[in-house]
Design a protein that fits this description.
The protein folds into two domains: 162 residues, Immunoglobulin-like (Sandwich); 100 residues, Immunoglobulin-like (Sandwich), CATH 2.60.40. Strands 1, 2, 3, 4, 5, 8 and 11 form a seven-stranded antiparallel β-sheet that branches. A four-stranded antiparallel β-sheet has the order 14-15-18-17, with no helix packed on it. The protein has a three-stranded antiparallel β-sheet with strand order 6-10-9, with no helix packed on it. It starts with 19 loop residues before the first strand and ends with a strand. The chain contains one helix and 20 strands. The N terminus is likely disordered. The protein is mainly beta.
Length: 288
């Protein structure tokens, strides 16, 4: 089975172990937040407030990463190189469920590889459901991630935030709510400006296996892109945009001829994430 190489190319690697609390930057007010944790080219904090969609039942927290100018970090699927973030919540207490979501990423291109991630800063929304809403939640995170520029630096940060019951009835944190609005939506939750998947054509046999995907971008194709994920650790090449778009309809191609994974994809459910400047959507598609 082919797996994502997640290599660093020829980039130098340094391990970050510095966890010095910094001074919070000037930003929108948050209901609860940890101090900033410094990690050389990045700093990290936990923020939290009420969940507007489940008022009184869950918190909407966020893991915020702010990077030095020119640095980047990665999405859940980093692309041709890089390392996805790893969120370890095992030290938390009074939690029924903790779910991290990912704002729409962008394509990161350098001479050695095409990657998927974020520049400058990102906030990952985290839905936290308490086991007992009448008691405080102790949210403990051990985070592993990577930041890259000319070098790629694996980084670690540990944070602890207490979420009191009263926070469930408070206001959502605008910073987290804005990040949540940038998370790609499923078809039932799609907004009018979000991309629409029109169809997938799969040719999995023969010498030139390929996936072709067609999508409509109702608010225009500025920033239009597609990221395709396969299950079971199968690594897919990056989708490439095809020429000839019309009426906000864009076609993409995933060339499978050199990856050798085409036979493994039969019957598999792919996750297609469509992004644009105006919105983003996520669709599951099962191959024949």
């Amino acid at each position: 089975m082919s797996t994502n190489p997640c290599h660093m190319g020829t980039l130098a690697i340094a391990l970050v172990g510095a966890f010095v609390s910094g001074t919070a930057r000037a930003a929108e007010p948050v209901a609860a937040a940890t101090p900033w944790v410094e990690a050389q080219a990045a700093r990290v904090r936990l923020v939290a407030g009420a969940d507007a969609d489940r008022a009184g039942k869950s918190f909407l927290a966020g893991v915020e990463i702010v990077m030095a100018q020119g640095w980047k970090t990665y999405w859940r699927n980093p692309g041709e190189a890089g390392v996805p973030p790893n969120f370890d919540w095992s030290g938390s207490t009074n939690t029924a469920s903790i779910k991290v979501t990912y704002p729409a990423p962008i394509r990161l291109v350098d001479p050695a590889a095409e990657m998927i991630g974020y520049k400058s800063s990102v906030l990952f929304p985290v839905a936290v459901s308490p086991q007992d809403p009448s008691q405080a939640v102790e949210l403990r995170l051990a985070l592993e991630f990577a930041v890259c520029r000319e070098i790629c630096i694996p980084a670690q940060a540990s944070m602890h935030l207490t979420l009191p019951p009263a926070l469930l009835k408070g206001a959502p944190t605008p910073l987290v709510a804005a990040a949540q609005a940038r998370v790609p939506r499923s078809p039932p939750a799609r907004r009018g400006s979000d991309p629409v998947l029109l169809g997938v054509t799969a040719k999995l046999e023969g010498p030139d296996p390929v996936l072709q995907i067609e999508a409509k971008f109702p608010a225009g194709s500025a920033g239009a892109d597609l990221f395709v994920e396969a299950p079971d650790g199968i690594f897919l090449p990056m989708a490439q945009k095809l020429p000839g778009e019309s009426d906000a309809t864009v076609r993409f191609m995933v060339d499978l001829s050199r990856s050798g994974v085409a036979p493994e994809l039969k019957g598999k459910e792919l996750t297609l994430t469509l992004v644009s400047d105006a919105g983003a959507s996520e669709v599951a598609w099962t191959l024949p």
